[in-house]
Specification:
efflux transmembrane transporter activity; 3 helices; about 70% helix; OMP_efflux; alpha+beta; two-stranded antiparallel ribbon
Length: about 160
Protein backbone atom coordinates (compact mmCIF):
# COMPACT_ATOMS: atom_id res chain seq x y z
CA UNK A 1 0.00 0.00 0.00
CA UNK A 2 1.26 3.46 -0.73
CA UNK A 3 0.16 7.07 -0.21
CA UNK A 4 1.40 10.46 -1.27
CA UNK A 5 0.67 14.15 -1.79
CA UNK A 6 1.53 16.15 -4.82
CA UNK A 7 0.77 18.88 -7.35
CA UNK A 8 0.41 18.38 -11.08
CA UNK A 9 -0.07 21.03 -13.75
CA UNK A 10 -0.80 20.34 -17.44
CA UNK A 11 -0.84 22.89 -20.28
CA UNK A 12 -2.80 21.84 -23.40
CA UNK A 13 -2.50 23.78 -26.67
CA UNK A 14 -5.38 22.03 -28.32
CA UNK A 15 -8.70 20.91 -27.04
CA UNK A 16 -11.38 22.35 -24.86
CA UNK A 17 -9.22 22.72 -21.77
CA UNK A 18 -6.18 24.92 -21.96
CA UNK A 19 -4.93 24.07 -18.56
CA UNK A 20 -5.56 21.53 -15.91
CA UNK A 21 -4.34 21.73 -12.35
CA UNK A 22 -4.61 19.12 -9.65
CA UNK A 23 -3.89 19.68 -5.99
CA UNK A 24 -4.29 17.16 -3.20
CA UNK A 25 -3.46 13.82 -1.84
CA UNK A 26 -3.37 10.59 -3.76
CA UNK A 27 -3.81 7.03 -2.54
CA UNK A 28 -3.04 3.78 -4.31
CA UNK A 29 -2.76 0.08 -3.64
CA UNK A 30 -0.14 -2.19 -5.19
CA UNK A 31 -0.44 -5.95 -5.22
CA UNK A 32 2.42 -8.23 -6.23
CA UNK A 33 2.72 -11.93 -7.00
CA UNK A 34 6.00 -13.64 -7.76
CA UNK A 35 5.76 -15.59 -10.98
CA UNK A 36 9.34 -16.87 -11.03
CA UNK A 37 11.46 -17.06 -7.86
CA UNK A 38 14.66 -18.36 -9.46
CA UNK A 39 14.07 -21.95 -8.24
CA UNK A 40 14.49 -20.80 -4.62
CA UNK A 41 11.49 -22.78 -3.38
CA UNK A 42 12.80 -25.99 -4.97
CA UNK A 43 16.26 -25.38 -3.51
CA UNK A 44 14.80 -24.76 -0.05
CA UNK A 45 12.83 -28.02 -0.31
CA UNK A 46 15.98 -29.95 -1.24
CA UNK A 47 17.88 -28.33 1.63
CA UNK A 48 15.11 -29.27 4.06
CA UNK A 49 15.12 -32.88 2.80
CA UNK A 50 18.90 -33.07 3.21
CA UNK A 51 18.61 -31.65 6.73
CA UNK A 52 16.00 -34.29 7.63
CA UNK A 53 18.23 -37.05 6.22
CA UNK A 54 21.20 -35.74 8.19
CA UNK A 55 19.16 -35.77 11.40
CA UNK A 56 18.01 -39.34 10.73
CA UNK A 57 21.62 -40.43 10.13
CA UNK A 58 22.70 -38.70 13.32
CA UNK A 59 19.97 -40.51 15.29
CA UNK A 60 21.06 -43.85 13.81
CA UNK A 61 24.71 -43.11 14.61
CA UNK A 62 23.84 -42.21 18.20
CA UNK A 63 21.74 -45.36 18.54
CA UNK A 64 24.61 -47.54 17.24
CA UNK A 65 27.04 -45.77 19.56
CA UNK A 66 24.76 -46.40 22.54
CA UNK A 67 24.29 -50.07 21.65
CA UNK A 68 28.04 -50.51 21.18
CA UNK A 69 28.82 -48.74 24.44
CA UNK A 70 26.24 -50.84 26.28
CA UNK A 71 27.65 -54.08 24.80
CA UNK A 72 31.20 -53.10 25.80
CA UNK A 73 30.07 -52.22 29.31
CA UNK A 74 28.18 -55.51 29.60
CA UNK A 75 31.25 -57.53 28.54
CA UNK A 76 33.46 -55.60 30.94
CA UNK A 77 30.93 -56.16 33.73
CA UNK A 78 30.85 -59.92 33.04
CA UNK A 79 34.66 -60.06 32.92
CA UNK A 80 34.90 -58.22 36.23
CA UNK A 81 32.42 -60.61 37.84
CA UNK A 82 34.63 -63.51 36.74
CA UNK A 83 37.72 -61.66 37.93
CA UNK A 84 36.07 -61.06 41.32
CA UNK A 85 35.35 -64.77 41.66
CA UNK A 86 38.95 -65.61 40.75
CA UNK A 87 40.23 -63.08 43.27
CA UNK A 88 38.02 -64.65 45.96
CA UNK A 89 39.64 -68.00 45.23
CA UNK A 90 43.05 -66.35 45.25
CA UNK A 91 42.27 -64.76 48.63
CA UNK A 92 41.16 -68.12 50.02
CA UNK A 93 44.41 -69.70 48.80
CA UNK A 94 46.44 -66.82 50.27
CA UNK A 95 44.70 -67.31 53.65
CA UNK A 96 45.44 -71.04 53.59
CA UNK A 97 49.03 -70.30 52.60
CA UNK A 98 49.35 -67.77 55.43
CA UNK A 99 47.92 -70.21 57.98
CA UNK A 100 50.38 -72.88 56.84
CA UNK A 101 53.22 -70.35 56.97
CA UNK A 102 52.18 -69.30 60.48
CA UNK A 103 52.15 -72.92 61.69
CA UNK A 104 55.56 -73.53 60.13
CA UNK A 105 56.86 -70.31 61.72
CA UNK A 106 55.59 -71.41 65.15
CA UNK A 107 57.46 -74.69 64.96
CA UNK A 108 60.57 -72.95 63.67
CA UNK A 109 60.50 -74.39 60.15
CA UNK A 110 59.99 -70.95 58.50
CA UNK A 111 62.02 -67.75 58.78
CA UNK A 112 60.51 -64.38 59.60
CA UNK A 113 61.21 -63.15 56.08
CA UNK A 114 59.23 -66.00 54.54
CA UNK A 115 56.36 -65.34 56.97
CA UNK A 116 56.42 -61.70 55.93
CA UNK A 117 56.16 -62.75 52.28
CA UNK A 118 53.07 -64.84 53.13
CA UNK A 119 51.56 -61.82 54.93
CA UNK A 120 52.25 -59.57 51.93
CA UNK A 121 50.73 -62.15 49.62
CA UNK A 122 47.58 -62.19 51.78
CA UNK A 123 47.37 -58.38 51.83
CA UNK A 124 47.86 -58.16 48.06
CA UNK A 125 45.14 -60.77 47.49
CA UNK A 126 42.74 -58.77 49.71
CA UNK A 127 43.59 -55.58 47.83
CA UNK A 128 43.08 -57.22 44.42
CA UNK A 129 39.69 -58.57 45.55
CA UNK A 130 38.58 -55.14 46.76
CA UNK A 131 39.74 -53.54 43.50
CA UNK A 132 37.86 -56.15 41.44
CA UNK A 133 34.70 -55.64 43.53
CA UNK A 134 35.00 -51.87 43.15
CA UNK A 135 35.40 -52.07 39.37
CA UNK A 136 32.48 -54.50 39.12
CA UNK A 137 30.29 -52.05 41.02
CA UNK A 138 31.42 -49.17 38.78
CA UNK A 139 30.48 -51.13 35.66
CA UNK A 140 27.14 -52.07 37.23
CA UNK A 141 26.37 -48.42 37.92
CA UNK A 142 27.46 -47.45 34.39
CA UNK A 143 25.14 -50.09 32.92
CA UNK A 144 22.26 -48.77 35.01
CA UNK A 145 23.07 -45.23 33.93
CA UNK A 146 23.16 -46.13 30.22
CA UNK A 147 19.95 -48.13 30.46
CA UNK A 148 18.19 -45.27 32.26
CA UNK A 149 17.50 -47.28 35.44
CA UNK A 150 19.87 -45.43 37.76
CA UNK A 151 16.90 -43.84 39.56
CA UNK A 152 15.53 -47.26 40.50
CA UNK A 153 18.94 -48.24 41.86
CA UNK A 154 19.19 -45.15 44.05
CA UNK A 155 15.74 -45.57 45.60
Amino acid sequence: MNAGYGFTHYDYNTGTLDRQRTWGPSVGVTLGYTIFDGFNRKREQKNAEITVQNRELQVQRNKLWLESDFANMWLSYQNNIELTNLERESLHNAKVNYEIAMERYKIGDLSGLELREAQNSLLEAEQRLLTAQYRTKLYEISLLQISGKIGEYLE
